[in-house]
Design brief:
The protein is α+β, with helices and mostly antiparallel strands. It has 15 helices and twelve strands. Helix content is about 40%, strand content about 10%. Bound molecules: iron/sulfur cluster. Iron/sulfur cluster binds near residues 123, 125, 126, 137 and 141.
């Protein structure tokens, strides 16, 4: 579950690093969950369970993040904090570096088909309430949760900013800070060695009964914590306090060269997110088109969770952009069809991958539409298509049982059918 607000500590860093506010992701609505109102996926496999929503994910939380939750006194977090305290005291999840997800959960998550497919995978920090459920550690969620949005106001541009730029930057900072905490709170070398070994261990090849029963192993726990056994929560709380006292620039310095490089990428993605400039030349992108009952078409571009509905005529008009600059295409479109597209609409088509920037006009398509008015879409009076013509849909509507929206259009035929594995790209 996500919203436009970053956790306060990350928001403070990011405001300094980017030098400005981040545009809001207002299409992602958690209460009520916008995905729950979606029609079923075409094969019924990626529906969202109403009692988990998108929180079918168990975050690993770093030492300072656990400490920040435990230091929190807000009453709304009491339930999730109690769950966390229980987990801190369990002998198989807490290490000085992070509070891990149980290995059995990790195994199930890795093998699960789709996000939200089972209550069994619900996040332990998710709180069911009368308003429809919420994150119990909202202001301390990790980079994965904070940068996940089911829909993006700017489509692919927003996805690139959050998932391909901000998520790796914040993850890199979180990890560096957690190791920095280990340097600050002295652990004996033998415990440190075990902690470092446990940091990157994956799913065990064999599951000991203590892992299956989730009872833990006191000897292994002692090897990790040494003198801090019984005071794990105190250790985490101190990590939280020390990280909270750092300035954003201290945090970046601790992040080192890796964070500095991710920040360069994040700044580039931020500039793109704040810009509405139109490229000089564009051409149709790759997307799926399915007819809707109301005469519009559903277009699925960068994400199965964020399809949009557009008037069918817009897809017909895309061929005018092939082999021309944007200005030439608009002039030809006006001359041949009487239809005017406003620049904001072209920007939206670019955002959702229906159009993509072309480095140079194509070689073969200049002939399209030059032989006179297109009788299929020519208007008797001037029509202006506005950006509002594009609407976000809650989810994918199953297509009619017929092959393609426009059987005559070779380009549409070449568009691949939905590949359910693409949904995985959007999982946390
Ligand atoms: S930490 Fe919060 S946002 Fe993340 S999966 Fe759990 S409940 Fe959802």
């Amino acid at each position: 579950m996500s919203n436009t607000t970053l956790p306060s500590i990350q928001a403070q860093w990011v405001r300094e690093f980017l030098g400005g506010p981040i545009p809001s992701e207002s299409e992602t609505v958690c209460q009520p969950c916008v995905l729950l109102s979606a029609a079923h996926g075409r094969d019924g496999t990626w529906n969202i369970h109403p009692r988990t929503k998108c929180c079918s994910y168990h975050p690993d939380l770093f030492n300072f993040q656990v400490g920040n939750v435990l230091n929190e006194t807000e009453r709304g977090m009491a339930q999730a904090r109690a769950v966390m305290e229980e987990r801190v005291n369990a002998l198989f999840m807490a290490t000085p570096l992070l509070l891990k997800k149980p290995p059995v959960y990790r195994l199930l998550y890795d093998r699960a088909t789709y996000m939200g497919c089972s209550l069994r995978l619900c996040c332990p920090y998710y709180v069911e309430d009368s308003a429809g459920g919420r994150c119990g550690i909202w202001d301390h969620r990790n980079a994965t949760c904070a940068t996940w949005f089911c829909k993006h106001t700017r489509g692919q541009v927003g996805f690139t900013f959050w998932r391909e730029a901000m998520e790796p930057l914040l993850k890199s900072l979180e990890r560096a800070l957690a190791f920095w905490c280990l340097t600050q709170l002295r652990l004996p070398e033998e415990n440190l060695k075990r902690t470092m070994e446990a940091a990157d261990c994956g799913i065990p090849a064999k599951f000991a009964s203590s892992l299956l029963e989730e009872t833990g192993d006191p000897a292994a726990h002692f090897a990790l914590w040494g003198p801090w056994v019984g005071r794990e929560a105190e250790f985490y709380c101190e990590c939280g306090r020390r990280v909270s006292a750092l300035s954003p620039w201290d945090v970046l310095a601790i992040g080192g060269p890796e964070a500095a490089l991710y920040l360069r990428l994040a700044r580039k993605a931020y500039r793109a997110l704040c810009s509405t400039r139109l490229p000089r030349t564009v051409c149709p992108g790759r997307f799926e088109v399915h007819p809707l009952a109301d005469g519009r078409v559903q277009v699925v571009g960068y994400s199965c969770y964020d399809p949009i509905a557009v008037p069918a005529v817009i897809i017909e008009l895309l061929s005018y952009f092939e082999g021309r600059t944007v200005n030439e295409a608009l002039r030809a479109m006006r001359r041949m069809t009487g239809i005017d597209m406003e620049p904001k609409l072209i920007r939206k088509l670019l955002d959702f991958g229906i159009l993509v920037e072309a480095k140079r006009p194509g070689l073969f398509a200049r002939r399209i539409g030059t032989r006179g008015r297109n009788p299929k879409i020519a208007q008797t009076r001037r029509v202006r298509l506005k950006a509002e013509a594009l609407l976000h849909l809650p989810g994918m509507v199953p297509p009619e049982p017929r092959p393609a929206w426009n059987e005559e259009d070779q380009r549409t035929k070449a568009i691949p059918r939905a590949d359910p594995r693409r949904v995985r790209r959007c999982r946390r």
